[in-house]
Amino acid sequence: MNLTSLRYLIKEGFHNTWSNRMMSVASICVLLSCLVIIGSTAMIFLNINTLVERIENENVIMVYIEDKDKDGNVLVTEDDVKEIGKEIEKFDNIESVEFVSKESAWKAQLKTMEKAQAEFFTTVSDEIPLPDAYKVTVKELSKFNKTVKKIKSIEHVTVRENNELARKIDTVSRAVSIISVVIIAVLFAISLFIIANTIKLTVYSRRLEISIMKSVGATNSFVRLPFVVEGCVLGVISGVLSLGAVWGVYELAVYLFRDILKGLSLAAIPFVDYALPMLGIFVAIGILSGVGGSVITMRRYLNKEGSEISEI
Question: What does the alpha-carbon distance between residue 266 and residue 269 come to, in Å, rounded to a whole number?
Fold first, then answer.
């Protein structure tokens, strides 16, 4: 196939898109609807994933140092406390280890009390009733239990952790990922089906032309390319329009739920950060759906003789 023929076939693809504009508009609307749902699902997933990451960062293990026994005997020295911190840092699945001195912890605790209550505790005794501690953040919640078990094996420490919350967060994160993938896969299959049927109708309306082309010796590639170009055009237009639609829907949802988000001390992620990647994905899905639908449909007909096509 020479360059002149290629340009002619590409031009025919654009011409067919306009000639069959009613079917083209229908295809774009259906594909746009699927992409909007896919994009909305993706933004919901990204927001939930951001929330999960935030909770993960706040879900820490507090490791308290038992510096004295019941009789008041000293169990660990300052050097021992430092060694405990170093030992925790060597464990797997440790994101960070932050030392919290009993003095700073006690000052923070006093600030949460009423003035009279704080004065009472400071007057009764100069001794600080809190132990030194380490604030440990884990990397993966799926390994949370193993990490807690290792820390508990250290002598003279008491661990406070929220195992149930960690388990729920990990479950929610996995569930959201699976549901998002399933929804996107199903909608992509629907888009492919719709595009294939649209191309099928186009082929039906041009069955005589295809029959003649096949009869005079046109190759399958020569007949197929305009339909592939048509699928690409529909995919690109659908992708661009879908981005604008998702952007508008997202901003509207953020505006409507702004009070709820503010009350929960949450903030929606800015859409602009994901606009370009989403545009690329939408256009890719649109082109893949369009080209895939064209190829699937044309294969069925181009495997037949021209006379058989004319009888469809």
Answer: 10
CB 136 within 8 A of CB 96: yes
- With contact defined as beta carbons under 8 Å apart, do 176 and 47 qualify? no
DSSP tally for the chain: helices H, then strands E: 12, 4
Full-model pTM: 0.58
Q: What is the DSSP string of 83-110?
A: HHHHHHHTSTTEEEEEEE-HHHHHHHHH
Smallest CA-to-CA distance from 99 within 77, 116, 83 is with 83
Tell me if residue 63 falls in helix, strand or coil: strand
Q: Which three-class secondary structure state does DSSP give residue 123? A: helix
Q: Phi and psi (nearest 5°) for 62?
A: -95, 120
**Which residues pair with residue 64 across a beta bridge?**
133, 158
Evaluate if residue 94 carries a pLDDT over 80: yes
**CA 191 from centre of chain:** 20
Number of other residues whose CB lies within 10 A of the CB of residue 295:
16
Q: What does the pLDDT average to over 249-267? A: 81
Count of C-beta atoms within a 10 Å radius of residue 43: 21
Q: Which residues pair with 136 in a beta bridge?
A: 61, 97
For residues 294 and 17, give the distance between their C-alpha atoms in angstroms, rounded to a whole number: 13
Q: Are 288 and 185 in contact (CB under 8 A)?
A: no
DSSP state of 159: E
E-strand stretches of the chain? 61-65, 94-100, 133-138, 157-160
Pairwise pLDDT comparison (98 vs 215), residue with the higher score = 98
| Residue linked to tokens 């340009």 | 7
Whole-angstrom distance, CA of residue 253 vs CA of residue 230: 34
